[in-house]
Structures are given as C-alpha cells and as structure tokens.
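To fix ideas, we close by showing one paired sequence and structure record:
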Amino acid sequence: MRCAIVHYHELALKGRNRDFFEQRLVRNLRLALKDLKIRRIESLQGRIRVTIPDEIASDLVIERLRRTCGVSNFLLTESVPLDLTAPDLTTIKQVAERQLSEQTFNSFRVTAKRADKRLPLTSMDVEREVGGYLHEVTGKAVKLKQPDLTLHIELLTKEAHIAARKIPGPGGMPVGTSGKVACLISGGIDSPVAAYRMMKRGCKAVFVHFSGRPLVSRDSEEKVQELVQLLTAYQYHSQLYIVPFGEIQREIVANAPAAFRVVLYRRIMVRIAEELARRHGCWALVTGDSLGQVASQTPENLSVVEAAAELPLLRPLIGMDKIEITEQAQQIGSFTTSIEPDQDCCKLFVPLHPSTRTKPDDILRIERGLEISTFVKQGVEKAELSTFTFPS
C-alpha cells in the first residue's frame, strides 16, 4: 500500500490546543487532495497518514503536499503489516531493497522511528539489522554522516512505512488557524510574497487590489487575478476585491501638492481596504512594504501611512531585500507573472521629487482640504468582488 506520511513541527508544541491544529491540517489536506479522490487521511501517533490509491500518480500528490502550509516534510512510503508482539523484519528488508534499487547512490544510512514504544525492537535495532542487510545485498557503504541517500522506516502500531525520499513542505501553520487578514495586492513581486508569508503563519487572506481604471486598461486586474488564483493553491478559497481608483487619483492630483501624492494614495487605500476587511472579520491589513525600497517606504512615510489605519498594519517583508523577496517569489511560482508589464495605478501621476520624509502635520493639513470620507465611500461602493477556488 502506498502512503504519504506527513510530519509537522510547530503543531507538536501546541499543548492542549494541539488537536485543533492537527484537525485543521487534516482538513486542509483533504481540500488540497479532494479532486484526486483521496479519501483516507488520518491523524495518528504524531503524524498524518494519507493513503494513495494505485491509480493516482505520485507526482500529483507531491505537488499538493509541498504547498500545504503546516507540513514540515513528508515521506512517500510503501507500508507493510507489523506484528507488535513478534515483529519480523524480513518484509521490511525486501521493500527497503526494492526502494534502494530505484535510486542512484554510493553511500546510505537507515533512519528508523518507533512511534509505539511497546515494540520490542528499538529504533537502533531496526537500523542496525536493516542497514546490515542492505549493505550486504547492495555492496554500498554505510555512512552515518552526510550519506548520499537516507532510507526512512517509520514503525507504527500495526504497520511499518519505508521510504527512500523525504520531501520538504512549506512548514509553518495550517491556513485558517490564525484568523483572516486583508492583503493589499498589486501586480508586482512583493505583495504576493507578503500574502504567502501570512498564509504560512496560518492566516486566511482576503485580497484587495487598487486599479487605475478608468484611466488605464484592465491589464493589472487580469494579472492580479492570475496571482490570486496561484495563491489560492495555498488556502483553497480566496476572495478578491478590485477597487477602481483612477477617479480618486485624479481628484488628489487636482487638489494636493505633487510631492505628497503617493503618500495620500496609500493612506486612502488603507482606509478603503480597512472598510472591506471589516466585512470579513479581518483582524489586520497586510502590505508588501520593504524598508527603504522606494520613496513611499522610508521610515517617515511608512509611519504616516500606518497612522491612517485603525486595524494593525502588518509588513512581513519589512526586513527583506529585493533579492530575498525575488527568491521567494520564484519559490512559490508568482515571479513569472509578477514581472509581466502592466499599468499599475501607483505609477500614475508620480511626481519627479516625491516627499520622502512626510510629517504627520503636513499630511493632515492637506487631507483637510480633500473629501477623504467621500473617496473612501466611493472606493468601497465601487469595489468588485471575485471568488477563486482550488482545485478550480
């Protein structure tokens, strides 16, 4: 029988709340695998067992599990029955030999874990006996430090699982265990990564995109829809608000000093996103800001923008540089879409010399001459909602 044995890390530290986190991870695994008609997903002895039907390709299962937040790593195993009172390692040795015959290596080690301590053989006993057998039949060297290949054996109460590969997952917490957040998402590289990092900490993301429409085309909207569909593979159901922002920008350009335009845009975006966030019970807003990356992300400007929010404003990328952010975008698959050209609303009417050290008193004085509440109401009323599911 083929199985995936899923391991988690942080969930094991949750004490009395551990069952809640484990069950959420089981639920998310069911959502990730539902179209593959995988029905048996069970939590047992500090791990989760996913039984894989013969007709399902392993690569499909690997792809889904690698994107399930909360999964530290997993093994694709063959399982054999195990008699707890009189364990016979013969079948385990045969399966292990077959597993190794499919791999290329010069050195190996055997790592065994005994989940049920009633088993008379210790983990070291199993490692020594199976490792000795494999050394004899393959002629390969046993190397306990930095071997070419590690064979994993998991000994449960009624079965043993054998695997020659350990595949990393994203780690973190299961999506849905840390409430909802509203993520401001552009078509760029940063904001999808920021959203992903919050999902990895267990948050469910509601997305808000500000479009320059009607002053520009729908290019950025189509791009963001593609990015949200990609991110939905990590949380299985997403909602995206698209807010036409061009008219509001035009009003700001006509009635505010050029140097403060970008900060004003962002303060109004925060207020609109906050109103939409409250509809979904979100506890925070999330942006893709990285300290000092552009003029709007200086310490002074970040502080002035944050002052417009009543909800907490989270910036998971604040200490990352562009290389680190780009690497993570490539890792999650958003980079190729993010670098496609579009007409971003934040690039409309950008002054040659934007303010980099905006003072709160200056921005409040300017805002007193603008219809801020009208802009917020207009943005909320014109917001267009789309939903996304995975598998689609």
